[in-house]
Amino acid sequence: MLKKPGAIIFDLDGVLTDTSEYHYQAWKHLADDEGIPFTHEENDEHLRGVSRRESLMYIIRGRQYSEDQIQEMMDRKNNYYHELISHMSPNDLVPGGRALLQDIRDAGIKVAIGSGSKNCRMVLDLLQITDLLDGIADGNSVVNGKPAPDLFVYAAGLVNVPVAECLGVEDADAGIEAIKSAGMQLWLLAHKSVSTEQIRLCQHSQICTCKIYSTSS
Ligand code: B16
Ligand code: MG
User: Does 116 sit in the ligand 1 pocket, CB within 6 Å?
Assistant: First the structure.
């Protein structure tokens, strides 16, 4: 049974908005440039919630690149991503998202973001929800990204609520692991069928299956 939390910490990409699709398209553009095979299924399976560098390491696995080339490829992907998100607007927020965030605040619960993205603040501004947030932990906040607990622990600190009184909302395995190891309650927003591994990870948690975002299946 879910206890009333002191704070709800939302993942961004794949939870409040579908930027996961733009991340995929930007990585696909880069992979095509480099002649590396890369599919939507691989993106959903291995890259959701994972940092920019870790994502690139997955795509180029087994191939030799210098650190300068790796940096250039991360920058190139980020430029493609910027082009894709430049037209985002409040219409790209999950339906009912603004009202939900407002209702949570009205109930006296703090609202924070726990996103591994360095572009998080830009996306929040495009969605025009920055004013509804009590804290923003993003890809610039901590050294160790998801699945390490650091990002969610940092977010809890920003809103001054003990981790045990926080609820984390996530769509990706890396984020589930981060929330669980932070010692928070978890709400999994699953975009497709929930795997046995996710059910194991999500013990004593809330699972909500929804198909509001485009996925490969
Ligand atoms: P960036 P989240 C994550 O955001 C994305 O899910 C993941 O696909 C992306 O690689 C990562 O942010 C880093 O993003 O390149 O913009 O810094 O799901 O933690 O909100
Ligand atoms: Mg996510």
Answer: yes
Nearest to 175 by CA among 200, 194, 150: 150
Residue spans per domain, the chain: 7-18+91-201, 20-85
CATH architecture under which domain 20-85 falls: Orthogonal Bundle (1.10)
177 pLDDT more than 80: yes
Ligand approaching nearest to the C-alpha of 176: 2
Per-residue pLDDT band at 189 (split at 50, 70, 90): confident
Query: Cβ(118) to ligand 1 under 6 A?
Result: yes
Structure-block tokens of residue 215? 């996925």
pLDDT in tens, 109-163: 999 999 999 999 999 999 999 999 999 999 999 999 999 999 999 999 999 999 9
Take atom 15 of ligand 1 and give the residue whose Cα is closest: 52
Whether the bond into 147 is cis, omega within 30 of 0: yes
CATH architecture of 7-18+91-201: 3-Layer(aba) Sandwich (3.40)
Report the DSSP beta bridge partners of residue 206: 187
